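Researcher: Hi, I'm a grad student and pretty new to this. My advisor asked me to get structures for two proteins we've been looking at. I'm not sure of the right format, so I'll just paste the first sequence and hope you can take it from there.
Model: That works fine. Here's the first sequence with its structure tokens right after it:
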Amino acid sequence: MKFITTQIDMFSYSVLSKEQMVRLLKEISVYGTYTGRMCVAR
């Protein structure tokens, strides 16, 4: 998941598909948009 360390901002775009984002939400409660945008504030 190199995208997390290369983007410097509060939000990051992952390379995950809509289906993968839905799976993250349902299985482990990781929230993001269907376009793969996630909050990665540190």
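Researcher: Oh nice, that was easy. Here's the second one.
Model: And its structure:
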Amino acid sequence: MVDEKKVPSGFIYFFGAFGGILFGYDIGVMTGALPFLENDWHLQASAATIGWIVSAVMFGAIFGGALAGQLSDRLGRRKTILIAALIFVVGSILSGIAPHNGQYYLIFVRIFLGLAVGAASALVPSYMSEMAPARLRGRLSGINQTMIVSGMLLSYIMDFLLKGLPETIAWRLMLGLAAVPALILFAGVLRLPESPRFLVKNNKLADARKVLSYIRSNQDEIDSEILQIQETAKQEIKESQRVSLATMFSGRYRYLVIAGVGVAAFQQFQGANAIFYYIPLIVNQATGHAASSALLWPVIQGVILVVGSLVFLVIADRFNRRSLLTVGGTIMALSFILPAVLKFIIPHANPMMIVVFLSIYVALYSFTWAPLTWVIVGEIFPLVIRGRASGLASSFNWIGSFLVGLLFPIMTASMSQEAVFAIFGVVCFLGVFFVRTFVPETRGHTLEEIEKVGGEKPVMAYEAGR
């Protein structure tokens, strides 16, 4: 195992969350690359092909999240993140050298790349929650979101800077440059220790204590946490051989699994990635200007996302998770629905109105649903099923992302943008209802306390934090 004496806690938290940079870069890079790819391969009239090229990464991520969950329970969080980083490197390079008009090649390679994206989305929050003390878990897990949106902003800036190159070179460089942060991630993770909870689960108590000694403030805190983990692990290790999909939805775990997976699914079905993937095309449809000339808008959205993620780091452990999700989801819903209402009342309203409302949506999303989804996924699942349940939540999240990315260009080809976003607005309201009904409050509770209460009571009757 890595010698933790040479690994400062800040380094652990930084590179523990650095996978989010790659996650974010691959989410955002196609936003700018797509207009050039469309022109280079003459895809303007092929809505389904565009949808598949954009959403192929999310399709692969559906399986990457599930596979990573199982691998991380066998190999450990650290080794699985290293494997994901290598896939990032190879997939990025293969994307950049796609043959001309190689639509099927690019779709296949991006599905392969999606395996790593899905793995990162599942492993990073799980790793961070297991390393962070309860009092700081929301804030430190929120670093994951800051990394994701920083990766998105980086991709938007690179897209903007490269837009002056010939079309066939510009989009290839945009996609291929993701290999650079992937190599940085690989080098950093080589120095990371394994999760203490994984080590305890595998009877490596000395190693677990050693890791905790560099990320906890005193010996009493370390001893208390080791005892808590051991007490939970003793019971759960006996049952670990029986863990399956049916186990996760058994009476003991069902309520917390439904809560975590449901929040992860709603985050995507609310439609945020329709903005992030297609904002140049949205501006193009609203104004009539070429999509390739609208690449400043993704940068603006990226700045909003980064600022929002920093706001979350300040407020993460000051407000209840459920309260932030409720307020954020409500305003997000109104931001999607009001443009359709105003368009109905004022048919000749400024078409850029929708972009203004989308910016409001992004602002609220950036410090509520975007980071809190992964905080909840990282802290709500019991240890015995955490790897697989996190993978399942990640897969459902990516199913939503895949469907939004695939269907948005098809939907906007058959109905107005305002109507499409109004549909997403209704989903936002449904997400708020789900949170108020099924999701327990987890702020300030240790992972063992969350499991104990969640196992004793159905979530419908779980009143903590209400």
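Researcher: Is there anything I should tell my advisor about the second?
Model: You could mention this: The longest helix spans residues 383-414.
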